[in-house]
Amino acid sequence: MSSAPILNTPAEEPPHAVVPSARAPLHARIAFVVETARRLHQYGTSAPRLESALAKLAARLDLQAQVWSSPTAIIISFADGDDRERIAETTRVIRLSPGDIDLRHLVEVNEIADKVIAGELDIAQGSRLLHTLSDRIGPRARAHEVLCYGLVSATLATLMRGAWVDVAAAGGIGLVVGLIADVAARSQRMRLGLEALSGLVATVLATLISVYVTPLTLKITILASLIVLFPGMPLTNAVRELSTRHLVSGVARFADAVATLIKLAFGTLVGNQLCKLLGLAPPLAALPPVPDWAIWVALVFGTYGFAVLFRAARRDFPLVMAAAALGYAITWFGGRQFGPEFGVFLAGAIMGALSNVYARASNRPGALVREPGIILLVPGSLGFLTVSAIVGSDVFLGINTAALLFAILVSLVAGLLFGDLIVSPRRVL
Predict the structure, then answer these.
(1) Do the beta carbons of residue 320 and residue 306 sit within 8 Å?
(2) For 41-97, how does the pLDDT look when each residue is reduced to its tens digit (9 = 90+)?
(3) Among 416, 414, 429, CA closest to 353
(4) Residue 150 has pLDDT above 60, yes or no
(5) What is the dihedral of CA 20, 21, 26, 30, to 10 degrees?
(6) C-alpha–C-alpha distance, residues 214 and 209, integer Å
(7) DSSP code string of 109-124
(8) Neighbours of 393 (CB within 10 A)
(9) Using CA atoms in the order 157, 159, 162, 166, what is the torsion angle rounded to 10 degrees?
């Protein structure tokens, strides 16, 4: 039997079509939907896509489901059968921490659900496979991710047109930030202070290098070394959720992103004050930027780093890297021709449409193209500069930067929405 995607639009396949798994016991079908919800949330699915995906999955299993999703919880009410007038008989509440993008596991969850719907797996087998998905990674994979923190930081310093010494320093400090993040991932107490501690350490290390080794462009070096921690993607998802009237989730995600920016800004502020107390005054120097060709070389390494940090499967590395590079290239050329805001809009629209084309052609989640395709467009660093300026009492600079942040966020989200209009999504993820 061919696998029918669980997330088809109603025009392509009736969402209430009878499938073998719909004959399973009620508690088994509910348990499968709940576990699927938990996994999709855990692997970084936004509220609109998660709610739509679960509603369609439940309908294919002959359930009525009312789904409410936020960054920290999911509530699902179930009724057996396809009668929309029936009152919910069972409600499940799932308490969760905000999820991070994990493309490999997202694809695996999608494939398991498709096989259950197609009758290739029964409900019990599907639930067992979902429970066996392991989120733990070995020491070698963790070391690989730490190295990619440094790789991405060096790439961002290059894209920001820093000097060669800035690129080297950002890469080295990025490695240290990666080590801190790796330790924090296994310590609840340290995880809560990760951003503040990383901001402090990055600022102090950059200042020490600038004073005792070689002058640096401090702002570029610090921004690039912290770039992986910036909540650019959560900010984008928050605005997109607000634009689709998922108000609770959008406001909560936006507040979480702002809290992350505040912790990063205060960490760097404390680092600056500590350096002043120690009498460390970095020299001012006009350093020549890297040449233009270095940007395109660095882009190759940076996209590889993002593929690792997004935890894509090995076979999807070329796709993820190509999507990230294409998104940046469209923004770069579009920005030169029409301005930065329109360049971001154009890249968002094209990458959104291409992700839907890929999902239609391959019967796999469009997130494999969409998420990496916009990662270099999300304005996380602008949010950091906004909060840093306000914390540093430069309110007018903060307001101006916030206006630019808002313009780019709106441009990106509008582009993604237009991409869905250009090519309608066959799959929700």
Answers:
(1) yes
(2) 999 888 888 988 898 888 888 888 889 999 999 999 998 876 556 667 788 999 988
(3) 416
(4) yes
(5) -150
(6) 6
(7) HHHHHHHHHHTSS-HH
(8) 8
(9) 20
What are the residues whose beta carbons fall under 8 Å from the beta carbon of 216, sequence distance 6 or more? 163, 165, 166, 169, 206, 209, 210, 282, 287
Q: What is the pLDDT of residue 145?
A: 94
Of 250, 284, 306, the position where a domain reaches its end is 306
Residue 6, domain member (yes or no): no
Please say whether the beta carbons of 358 and 427 come within 8 A.
no
pLDDT, tens digit, 9 for 90 and up, residues 328-367:
999 988 888 888 888 889 999 999 999 999 998 888 899 9
- In terms of domains, do 276 and 301 share one? yes
Phi, psi of 119 (to 5 degrees): 85, 5
Is the pLDDT at 1 greater than 60? The verdict is no
Which residue is listed with tokens 């593929």?
Answer: 307
Q: Are 246 and 422 in contact (CB under 8 A)?
A: no
Domain boundary pick from 132, 158, 187: 132
Position 122 scores a pLDDT of 85
Asked whether the beta carbons of 221 and 166 are under 8 A apart, the reply is yes
Please tell me the distance from the alpha carbon of residue 123 to that of residue 18, in angstroms, as a whole number.
15
Kindly report the average pLDDT of the chain as a whole number.
85
Nearest CA to 306 among 406, 378, 385? 378
Three-class SS state of 74:
strand
Asked if residue 279 and residue 145 are part of one domain, the reply reads yes
- In the chain, the largest separation of any two C-alpha atoms, in whole Å, equals 73
Predicted pLDDT at 10:
38
Q: In 3D, which of 44, 54, 110, 46 has the Cα closest to residue 78?
A: 54
Using DSSP's 3-state secondary structure scheme, residue 87 falls into coil
Tokens found for residue 63:
């359930």
- Do residues 259 and 195 make contact, with C-beta atoms less than 8 angstroms apart? no
- Using alpha carbons only, how large is the chain's radius of gyration in Å? 23
